Backbone:
């Protein structure tokens, strides 16, 4: 669970964090991790709690926009090549299949087509 009191956050920031947390939970992220990620996102985008008594440091609109863009790019980059839990082999990309074959130490995978990778992975798990 994230540290510290959330009293200095606006109602809008609290709603945003809750929405982000729900989104992570829907994707299968554990509850405490989802909450931590949600508050980290709110802090990065808005510079933390905005009510009186905070540190007084404000994040400029330009830096918030840059942070959102870089965050989105990193999210896409981490999603690529990583099979999602419970995903069927047929729904995976060739890159995802190649990574899975590498993890299962299937020899000859680098020269295999997507169909050959599917067959090899099915054979390895049987």
Residues:
């Amino acid at each position: 669970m994230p540290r510290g009191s959330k009293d200095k956050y606006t109602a809008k920031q609290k709603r945003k964090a809750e929405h982000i947390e729900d989104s992570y939970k829907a994707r299968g992220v554990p509850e405490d991790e989802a909450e931590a990620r949600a508050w980290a996102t709110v802090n990065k985008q808005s510079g933390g709690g905005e009510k009186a008594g905070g540190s007084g440091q404000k994040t400029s609109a330009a830096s918030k926009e840059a942070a959102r863009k870089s965050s989105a790019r990193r999210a896409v980059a981490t999603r690529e090549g990583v099979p999602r839990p419970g995903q069927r082999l047929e729904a995976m990309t060739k890159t995802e299949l190649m990574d899975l074959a590498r993890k299962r130490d299937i020899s000859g995978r680098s020269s295999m087509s997507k169909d050959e990778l599917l067959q090899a992975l099915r054979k390895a798990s049987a």
